[in-house]
Amino acid sequence: MFGMNDEPAHMVRAQGVLRGDFSDPYITDGLPGEQYNCVFWQGQTADCMDLTWLPEGTIQSSPTNNYPPLLHFIAGIPSLFFDGLLGAYLMRIWLASICVAILAWAVKLLLDRSPTRWTLLGVSVGCTPMAIFCMSGVAPSGLTFAGAAVLWASGLNVFIPSSSTVRRQSQVTFIAAALLFPFLRRDAFLWEVLILFCLLSMVSLAHLKQLSKLRTTWVSLLGIFASMVAVWTIWASKATDSFVSNASSHFGGSWKSGIGQLYSYILMLIGNFGWNSTWMSSEMLVTCIITVCSVLLIALTSSNRYFTRGLLVTVALFFVSPVAIGAVRSYYIQGRYLFPLWIGVFILAGQAIGKNFFPNVFERRFFKLVIGLEIVYQFFAFAQNQRRYTVGASGTWKFLGRSDVWHPPMMNNWFVLALIIISLSAIPIFGHKLIKEFTPMIDTQEISESSQS
């Protein structure tokens, strides 16, 4: 509990918002929101926190007062029915389920337009360990990641439809996603503008003219613009003013410092857990970077001109946007803020590669290789999180024969061994099932397309 950056602050506001309290401080069920201090950059095990709840109706402050309330409305629903530690965990499970459902809908829309293994591969590579970590806690980054995925997926189907696209379904999803996305966090409207720009860069002039003749297009654009104006007026303008006016007291800013932070941002969005204090091992970071770069390079060198242009624009904005922010105020953004563009890069990559006819042996082997590497670094990312809070930042999993490195009473050694064995046993079972069940659909489509050509 409270193992994620700013999670207690978002839980406090979520409880307050669902109780009709929209201004700081908030009415809560007694959530012990200050207990995270002993694990915040301290390296202690999670049992240092006293998770005894305070009396019902306790008033607590939260620095999230200037956030749009959509996340807190959604996350706080379980607090209407459950309180205490159970209510806090249910809040996590509820929000994680919402994120997974939205992400699954994005995958469904993408598979409708291109039912190939590359579609699945693109989304799965985009789901870094940090993205999965963020979707498992009460914080805006996870819901923003899932929301961006469905915005990209539905946007592709609207602006660049394929013959198998379910158009009405995609149009409704796109309009809903575009209207609600700005309300997820203060900077969400900025990322939506960039996403729409990337999508428009891929559209042919003929299709753009066709869209401009539809009344639905203009009504939707008016609604999207209104939602962005509302977010800017009520929440984002104040945050932007504070961001600019306080730049000098936060290391200032320069293009050089913005560029210097790029590599750190990439590492952060791959695997920097907890309160930005628990990194994946360097070996797993390198494995993940090699995996995602190999997929991206194949996409860039094999896609048609529209997808190549879209990929180049999205990748360019992914690098330029943090540099531009750093030019105003250094050391401000964190890697997870870039999730909306990151997932877009790999959704486009999967769609771009899927339009090519590679040898079947290459497709099968490359798919298995990438999925296999993903399984490895995702598992070790999970293990790293467990180690951090059960053993401590200075501990180790190498406890066999060395009882001095284990830090009781968080977790029994044999329980950890059983957990590792079960996880490692499940990996080949589900990995094989994934590959086996997905292959017939691809092979059938490949045979059909080959016969048509």
Strand content: under 5%
C-alpha Rg, in Å? 23 Å
| Helix/strand order, N-terminal first | HEEHHHHHHHHHHHEEHHHHH
Ranges with pLDDT <50 over ≥5 residues? 440-453
Shape: globular
- Give a quick account of the main beta sheet: strands, pairing sense, barrel closure: 2 strands, antiparallel
Mean pLDDT: 83
State the strand order across the main sheet: 1-2
User: Oligomeric form of this entry?
Assistant: single chain
How many helix segments?
Answer: 17
User: In the residues, how many domains can be counted?
Assistant: 3
Transmembrane segments: 89-111, 118-139, 188-206, 218-237, 281-299, 311-331, 337-354, 366-383, 414-431
InterPro entries: DUF2142_membrane
Pfam families: DUF2142 (PF09913)
Keywords: Membrane, Transmembrane, Transmembrane helix
Give me the secondary-structure topology.
Elements: H1 7-18, E1 26-27, E2 59-60, H2 70-75, H3 84-113, H4 117-126, H5 129-135, H6 140-159, H7 167-180, H8 188-200, H9 205-212, H10 215-245, H11 255-260, H12 262-271, E3 272-273, E4 278-279, H13 282-302, H14 305-328, H15 339-354, H16 360-391, H17 413-452
Transmembrane segments: 89-111, 118-139, 188-206, 218-237, 281-299, 311-331, 337-354, 366-383, 414-431
InterPro entries: DUF2142_membrane (IPR018674)
Keywords: Membrane, Transmembrane, Transmembrane helix
